[in-house]
Amino acid sequence: MPTIAVTTWSLEQTAPTDLLPAVAPDGDVRVVRSEVPSPEFSRYLYASVGGDIRWTDRLGWSYARWVEHLERPGVETWVAYDRGTPAGYVELEAQDDAVVEIVYFGLLPAFRGRRIGGHLLSYGVARAWDLADRWAGLTPTKRVWLHTCSKDGEHAMDNYQRRGFKLFDTKVEEEAEVAAPGPWPGAFPA
Fold first, then answer.
1. Is the pLDDT of residue 179 over 80?
2. How much is the pLDDT for 180?
């Protein structure tokens, strides 16, 4: 099976004041927390946002696995809507030592390049910093981190750095080359 070299960059913020918010886009763009755990909706977001950039690690998850993940304390999904249509999402996950990871972030292809991403990321990072305010028993956040890779969108790294994230690790690994799965089989050309 052919492989490709994939570079993964890990970035972090260590104080809420590190966040450099983007200007909100024009129009009716809203960001709303998906408060009811919904495996169907979460899988839709995951497959629709990541389908053209080869997000595949969760495609094999069972319904029960999605439920288990979404019901964990400190896991939140924030969804950007453009005129009522889901445009993208950010998934937060509380970790040990008052750390919050932005596990997934991105926009559906039709909504990229419209200034929604910077706004959604800004909103998501702010919610990572105040996550403990919504979850009894969580320690206030001391660090927010994420990773991006060379398979992600061409503007991903720039967006993270413009929001105040600092690089703390870089890795290069060989991965099996897989076709972009799309939100359903054959959605994108190979």
1. no
2. 74
